[in-house]
Design a protein that fits this description.
Three copies of one chain form a homotrimer. With about 375 residues, chain A is an alpha+beta fold. Helices cover about 20% and strands about 30% of the residues of chain A. The first copy, chain A, has two domains: about 120 residues, Rieske Iron-sulfur Protein; about 210 residues, Alpha-Beta Complex (Naphthalene 1,2-dioxygenase Alpha Subunit, Chain A, domain 1), CATH 3.90.380.
Chain lengths: ~375, ~375, ~375
């Protein structure tokens, strides 16, 4: 619907040469077809008999019926409108009642990989797809951890969700009763930021914090080391380590050099679906040694509640941007992360000959 | 909402000089007003005391209130916003508190005809409306048949539904468990096609078919003669005749010259409502001598189920077209019918000075 | 969504220098935040500890989160996304973790006034806001009256609702069973109209009317004096006085010079929310001496029913206008009020350098 919101231009608006999280691994069961849209492109995901992930364009080349409404026949996929059949590489191998199959009869195959518990798809030039570029993540069934997983659909541009994750100062306000831990430090102190290949590393100590609830067992006061890597398009890999009070001081404000008392894990992925729709995948939990199975459910519930607090704010933010797309945001020192990351996205877009991030869609910083 | 989907042009996009099915006859009860939209034009339908069908523009010329929210006063129709009253010919015959009624005070009357059990309206130049051009159809109460009737609203361009009806190869796939009768011939063999004045005649033999269910009484094997006329805008008049196996051979592949064992009737009409909305009217049944009253209910239920299979596919197809309107479809030998019919529609549009069928709306074949 | 309906132009489309009713006074409780949109601008309303009404732009200047999702801290309002805090005058007084607050850090404050039971906001140049220009209305708790209040959201341009209120001939038709009182005079006789500063005064006698229901106690026949002021943007202040039959004659058709038998009050305000959305505030009742508490509930219920009759008609009218925006309405003698008022609105728009009322949005008269 490019024309409808005045964003109609011929330049690409998406970075294609990137790995995007399309689904949780468990969402693609053997023998089943899963339809997903990523950067406005329809995908159908399934597994071969050998368990490998296949991601094809979810639009039959014949009359554009969705292949996700089709039928798996072994490792091949048949369109159940007029019966064209496609191999897992996307080539058409059967057209009913027609012997000759033209070379152009195919759907696009997207490079796809299962890593950890996410299914990643490469939306750009297949020759450039390097599985080694997929970041490491903890699998949900890793015995060293207790994790729970979820997903939320957003009616908002993905960069607004990225902004949120790149500026955790909002924990003191948006999540003061959930994830904020009553800690004004989130907002009052600025974290350190290091550039990464396609992202940022964000790190900080939150010192002298009185633990709440079942965490009280860790002591009266703790120093919390919060560190996350944030990678394009919106991969958020965070560790939150609880140490005895004084550790931050002892380490001179740098990374801790001792094992934590409690090791929390948060891994999230923001995937653009379209210009105003995104999908947000998340896992939260802790080292198995640190948490009981029932406690992890409570930790996850609080986390999910917080994510719905974000969703309400971000979707409202999107509506207000759309109400007056020309208005400019006020930059503050809180915005270092979002600003640096948006510059990075602009560079990636420019590298593909695309247009800059439209201020009319996500505001200007 | 032309501007919203980039189809904004000054050229007409509808063929107006045509009879369109606006409603089932029984939908317009005496004394009642029925609102319908056809090719983006609002209509109100009602019957005069003599039972004649009146189709007026459903928009009072005064302030554009819908006359369908008005009141019948004899054969005249009063707008119940400010009280203007209209004769069945569309002329205004009363303006409250005003003696002089200007000549321009009128709403458009559309030529309308009841034929069979459909109400037909002519959307173009009234002088060109020839009731003789309305095709013959079987009335629902014709004692020689047992028929049931229904209607489905589509969120899709009417030509996508026409495509579906013009290429019955999809019966082998989309309807393999309903109308397809386990017959790969639908897809594997191409029917004969003859040009008609504003449409196509499509005919074929499906040979040596083993009847299922209550049709087993017809014999172990039958030859099925399937023949339909397809007329603009989407009138589908089909007969499916079951003959003893060998009849096709005996007739040299031509039309059967003997009475069928079983004579099935399917009559359907596709009516464009707007650019992305259509209404699909259908009746299905068989010769009264061939089917019990309870069997016809079962036959109709299977048919209606199949039509919902089509709706799911076609609406998905529309969404995929809209996601990337510039993409071109892959022509196959399956598309002879749709391709010829779309050329005919383009000719009709050109004949009215309109623009060509927009590929952005319905794909290009 | 200016682009979507073809109304995209750079010229302003709203009159800003005007008092708009944003809410009923009781909708803004102490300690609570109320979000409202007026002429496409998002507002948050609250009360200071002293009870004064504050109306701020409901969009934090930082990242455009809505302040209405924020928190009142005394008389100040904190954004609960990243914590910026604003004084009641709209100036930012705190940015977490940042000492320097730039001058540009503020949200717009709109002049706001509580008068009667409505909260009025001035949407234009604050220097031009004159509280004395707010018309007098009866407060809901005025002991001399018994009134009830309500509000309805419309999916229609506010001028279509104004049209409705400026031509009460529709009472004879749209409300023949509710407010019309079986009186064809509403449609058959034209009222007198006098120009007001930013509106019209509309007056008429409805003579020799047989009262219905509990009004029968007034006599077999009454003369009804109906008089209302209609002011931009859609303030409708009406008095309907029942007098003994003959009073109209005795007063020579002019205003009555004696106290009425029954004094009905209707006060309404139409507020544009956006191009196709409006909010309609209304109070109805009568002089306390004239009506029992339970009767006023019945009177109000009939009135509210009538307003839903209007809503159904006007929203349908809007849909029909949007279906064919270029079509022109037919002027009649009924339209004197709407026509004069629309000319006044055009003058107000021109006075602010805005564009004329778009015929494509509300038809042309």
């Amino acid at each position: 619907m490019a024309a409808a919101d005045g964003l109609c231009t011929e330049l690409p608006m998406w970075v294609t040469n990137a790995w995007y999280v399309a689904a949780w691994s468990h969402e693609v069961e053997p023998g089943r077809l899963l339809a997903r849209t990523v950067i406005d492109e329809p995908l159908v995901l399934y597994r071969t008999a050998a368990g490998e992930i296949v991601a094809l364009e979810d639009r039959c080349c014949h009359r554009f019926a969705p292949l996700s409404m089709g039928r798996l026949e072994g490792d091949a996929l048949r369109c159940m409108y007029h019966g064209l059949k496609f191999a897992p590489d996307g080539s058409c191998i059967e057209i009913p009642g027609q012997k000759l199959i033209p070379h152009s009869a195919c759907v696009r195959r997207y490079p796809a990989q299962q890593r950890g518990s996410w299914l990643w798809v490469w939306m750009g030039d297949a020759a450039a797809a390097d599985p080694a570029a997929i970041p490491s993540t903890v699998a949900l069934d890793d015995a060293a951890y207790r994790l729970q997983a979820g997903a939320i659909d957003y009616a908002a541009h993905y960069l607004l969700i990225d902004d949120n994750l790149l500026d955790l100062s909002h924990l003191s306000f948006a999540h003061e009763k959930t994830l904020g831990l009553d800690m004004p430090q989130w907002a009052d102190e600025r974290p350190a930021m290091l550039p990464l290949e396609r992202g940022l590393r964000v790190q900080r100590w939150l010192r002298n914090h009185p633990p709440r609830g079942f965490m009280k067992k860790l002591g009266e006061r703790v120093d919390v080391w919060n560190s996350y890597d944030f990678l394009f398009p919106g991969i958020f890999l965070q560790r939150t380590d609880f140490h005895p009070a004084g550790t931050a001081e002892r380490c001179g404000g740098g990374a801790p050099d001792t094992a934590p008392l409690f090791h929390r894990v948060d891994e999230q992925a923001v995937t653009p679906v379209g210009e105003r729709t995104s999908r947000y995948f998340f896992a939260a939990g802790a080292r198995a040694a640190d948490i009981d199975p029932d406690r992890v459910g409570r930790l996850f519930a609080v986390t999910e509640t917080a994510f719905h607090e974000d969703k309400a704010l971000i979707e409202a933010q999107q509506r207000l941007i759309d109400l007056d797309p020309a208005r400019r945001m006020l930059p503050t020192s809180l915005d270092a992360g979002p600003t640096r990351f948006r510059r990075l996205v602009d560079d990636l877009l420019a590298g593909e000959g695309g247009r800059r991030i439209p201020a009319s869609a996500v505001g200007s910083s």
